[in-house]
Amino acid sequence: MRRVVFNQKGGVGKSSITVNLAAISASQGKRTLVVDLDPQCNASQYLLGMDAFTGAEGPKPNIGTFFGQTLSFRIKEKDAREFVHPTQFENLFVIPSNPELGEIEHMLESKHKIYKFRSLLLNLEKEFDVIYVDTPPAYNFYTLSALIAGDRVLIPFDCDAFSRKALYTLLDNIQEAREDHNDELKVEGIIVNQFQPRANLPKQLVEELISEGLPILSNHISSSVIMRESHDRAMPLVYLSPRHKMTEEFIALNGELGA
Prior knowledge:
Number of domains: 1
Order of helices and strands: EHEHEEHEEHHEHEHEHHHH
Strand order of the largest sheet: 5-6-2-7-1-8-9
Oligomer: single chain
């Protein structure tokens, strides 16, 4: 399964959701890969800490390396597995991002490299049970590449009125990508994140979206300071605090997805 976590709005928890769902999958014995397509590199640093970009042998081959090599026919392309790096957690692997992705985006667009990422994931799919793709907070070359490469989309939603307005545009973009490039793509569900069950506005927004027929997933993710600690320690919640309420929410969400 190739699962894309996508929202054009920043700050909705894409990287946190990507990494924690992937970590739960890995903890349950599934070989799991996270691909970080966001130039902010949050998922990479979450999983690798200070080693996100370099190791003992120098800079790690990353998703920027992959896209960069497609721009020159003179460069012999690396095997897809060379971009994959183990994390400290069993069964959990990552292709890290690169802050320089933005600098080559226009060249990739002008040379029509929009299907290259799909080829990479198809080459790796036989090696992994689940592949998660963390995307930038924008609808651009990289997010479209991910939507073309994926077969499922998860949409984080943070119970905000502005997020609701953006949600309709986002769904239109996914539909366009499906019609133009990838008819196998399906919206797996909308993940309600940073949910406050005792506050009226979040409950009202969620109820209204459900009434509109949108695919709101039943299990919501609340807000807690432990997530910040999890980021700081580069340790997903299932390893940091397996019995915490927020960890249990992610496990329940993972179960709902059937992952």
